[in-house]
Design brief:
heterodimer; A: about 260 residues; alpha/beta; Rossmann fold; 10 strands; B: mainly alpha; MetI-like fold; about 0% strand
């Protein structure tokens, strides 16, 4: 149930501003692809075009093609809501539903998909929490509010919520940037485990993290303020970090700018 | 002598330094301005409290003589006959009419107001949403006499049929029951009140919905929620207590409304649970209708009823503020 993503000639706009320009890449299934690059280079924007979350911002639009195996995500008859049920997302700041219990948070997506029946829900909630390495910490307080957990636990709860609906792809937008090192490690372990089931795309500011968790790495850059972000190169992570093709990539990973 | 002059001169120097300091001070006018502004602000705040206390004191002072002549229990009697030789009056029917018509107005207005707020916030294109919100707010600027005229001339004639229909269909429910559903009923008054309190509930709800953090909205959208599902999962739970507070403020406003109710509702004595039947009375409408022809005791009785209304609205408004404030702690 992991699918390949093929992007070709993708432009994304905020109103009249071109945010990312002409991006083409292939994202392999059952692997982790990391997006790195300086702030404002459009890596988060690009990530959000992969589940059509970009367009929920007023005035934002996308041109180009994103294929999920044989399905065109931007096809004329495609419902963005259906896309988002197939391509899950985890955000920079943990955002569990504040009024819902831990259980209800995980079950939320299932309920949206029309899953009824307590035993079925119980099973999936437990399985998702186990997959998110959170079950042992919360199994005795499933009825307590999700917002009462620590930041790292909340983020794993959000991951459990995202994977409960069995998406094809899991997008993660800097999932550790609001977390302490221990929680970060927990999430990284989780990513390594989840890539056996899902296609995972992770945006990160942290190059060590990209090197640790990803199989392939894409480097994004901007020519200057106000210019659109571009994909500089994408390759196997080891290649990007040892012998990149582009000078800009080398400058970035060696810390010469950004 | 030298030591003395030395002391003097050093004192002089200190004095001149201080004088120079003081001489430079007026250049920064800020401090004087601050003090003036602070006292003006404090004065205004105190004035509000003083006015409220004065109103309460005035009401009590005018009401007590009449209350002493009351031959019935002011709090429990259904009679309202303060102009008779042996005055008998109580607030039950007025309290009933006021509370029931306002509650009904709140129940009618809240869903519509929330619907408007949600439409403007999440459904309408921005070009439409802005002006629409403005128009809804404009409803609050219509004078209540205009609502009264409209209720009397336009709404009431149509309400006769509506009342008969409701009575026929739902007559087994006591509030829709009764033998003679009419057009100048508590029900009609409630509809006029509902329209009048719509803007306050709607604009406060809109404010609350605007504060829902983007992260909450995106959390549900990213799970594949439709717009309505997003509203159910993220917007309404977050905004619930704010909406409750807003509708209670609307309730407070409906309770104090006078002229529109006085025009629409025909006076009838006693408590009538059949809300579709003509007649009823509220505190404010009763005062407006009978103050001019009242005897001295009658006026005192009306003022006493006004005091009760004052207390009820105060309690409702304070409760509403408390609910709204509690929401802020969550946010």
């Amino acid at each position: 149930m992991a699918k390949r993503i093929e992007v070709s000639g993708l432009h994304a706009y905020y109103g009249g501003t071109l945010a990312i320009e002409d991006i083409s890449m292939t994202i392999e299934p059952r692997s982790v692809t990391a997006f790195i690059g300086p702030s404002g280079c459009g890596k988060s924007t690009f990530l959000r075009t992969l589940n059509r979350m970009h367009e929920v911002i007023p005035g934002a639009r996308v041109e180009g093609k994103v294929m999920l195996d044989d399905d065109d995500l931007y096809g004329p008859s495609v419902d963005p809501v259906a896309v988002r049920r197939t391509v899950g997302m985890v955000f920079q700041r943990p955002n569990p539903f504040p009024t819902m219990s831990i259980y209800e948070n995980v079950a939320a997506g299932l309920r949206l998909n029309g899953v009824r029946g307590k035993s079925k829900l119980d099973d999936v909630v437990e399985e998702s929490l186990r997959d998110a390495n959170l079950w042992n910490e919360v199994k005795d307080r499933l009825g307590k509010p999700g917002a009462g957990l620590s930041g790292g636990q909340q983020q794993r709860l959000c991951i459990a919520r995202a994977i409960a609906v069995q998406p094809q792809v899991l997008l993660m937008d800097e999932p550790c940037s609001a977390l302490d090192p221990i929680s970060t490690l927990a999430i990284e372990d989780l990513v390594a485990k989840l890539k056996n089931q899902f296609t995972i795309v992770i945006v990160t500011h942290n190059m060590q993290q990209a090197a640790r968790v990803s199989d392939r790495t894409a480097f994004f850059n901007i020519a200057g303020t106000g210019k659109p972000g571009k994909l500089i190169e994408i390759d196997d992570t080891s290649t990007i970090f040892t012998k990149p093709q582009e000078q800009a990539t080398e400058d970035y990973i060696t810390g010469r700018f950004g | 002598m030298t030591s003395e002059t030395g002391v003097e001169s050093s004192a002089d120097r200190a004095e001149s330094v201080r004088a120079g300091h003081r001489a430079r001070m007026p250049k920064s006018t800020g401090r004087v301005g601050d003090r003036v502004f602070a006292s003006a602000a404090r004065g205004s705040g105190a004035l509000v409290l003083a006015i409220i206390v004065a109103i309460a004191a005035f009401l009590v002072w005018k009401a007590v003589p009449a209350l002493q002549k009351d031959q019935a229990n002011f709090l429990t009697s259904q009679a309202w006959d303060p102009n008779a030789a042996t005055p008998r009056f109580g607030i039950v029917q007025l309290a009933f009419g006021t509370v029931v018509s306002s509650l009904l107005a709140m129940l009618i207005a809240t869903p519509v107001a929330v619907g408007i707020a949600l439409f403007i916030g999440f459904y309408a294109p921005r070009r439409l949403g802005g002006p629409l919100g403005y128009v809804v707010d404009l409803l609050a600027a219509v004078p209540s006499i205009v609502y009264g005229l409209w209720g009397l001339a336009v709404l009431a004639p149509h309400m006769e049929g509506v009342s008969k229909g409701l009575n026929a269909a739902l007559g087994w429910i006591p509030i829709f029951g009764g033998d003679s559903p009419g057009k100048n009923s508590v029900f009609t008054a409630s509809i006029v009140l509902a329209i009048m309190i719509l803007p306050i509930i709607s604009s406060l709800s809109r404010e609350v919905f605007l504060q829902v953090p983007r992260a909450h909205l995106e959390a549900s959208l990213a799970l594949g929620a439709t717009r309505w599902e997003m509203i159910k999962m993220s917007v309404l739970p977050y905004g619930r207590s704010g909406v409750i507070g807003a509708s209670m403020l609307g309730l407070g406003r409906a309770m104090g409304e006078t002229i529109a109710v006085a025009m629409v509702l025909t006076y009838a004595p006693g408590v009538n649970i059949h809300l579709l039947e003509d007649g009823g009375a509220t505190f404010a409408a009763n005062i407006a209708n009978s103050f001019a022809e009242a005897s001295e005791t009658g006026r005192g009785a009306l003022i006493a009823s006004g005091l009760v209304l004052f207390v009820i609205t105060l309690v409702v408004n304070m409760a509403a503020r408390a609910v709204v404030a509690r929401r802020k702690e969550f946010a």
